[in-house]
């Protein structure tokens, strides 16, 4: 949680190897299952489900939008996610990111200016949900807005 700012800066995400990149002009409708890291700079209306036995990272870039749930070993958000996020290891919320849904992970990094509207559970004892099925599409419920500021 108390890491150097260089680690949390969105430019540090560029150093990671991504096998799949959804460009800023790309719009996809439907669930995707990934076995390698993916970066989303466009718009995805659907769920992202990664194999839990791999070291899969899902990154939502500064202009990226995901309307659906995200499940992976590691998730970094600089853009917007309208759905739940579940990470076996770490979730990074960068400055300007918006998450409208619950976040469950082992470790959470939150930059000043990141917003979460949902419940946050950060625990090393939290197992991933059943990975044989795609996560459910988020249900619109009333949630309290929680703004995390450092």
Structure report:
By secondary structure, the protein is mainly beta. The chain has one domain (5-147). Helices cover 3% and strands 41% of the residues. It contains one helix and 17 strands. It has one helix spanning 5-8, and strands at residues 20-22, 27-29, 32-34, 38-40, 43-45, 48-50, 57-60, 65-67, 70-77, 80-82, 85-93, 98-99, 103-105, 107-110, 115-116, 120-122, 146-147. The strands form two sheets. Strands 1, 3, 4, 6, 7, 9, 11, 13, 14 and 16 form a ten-stranded parallel sheet that branches. The chain has a seven-stranded mixed sheet with strand order 2-5-8-10-12-15-17, with no helix packed on it. The termini are close together. The relative contact order is 0.16. Residues 1-12 and 130-145 have low confidence and may be disordered.
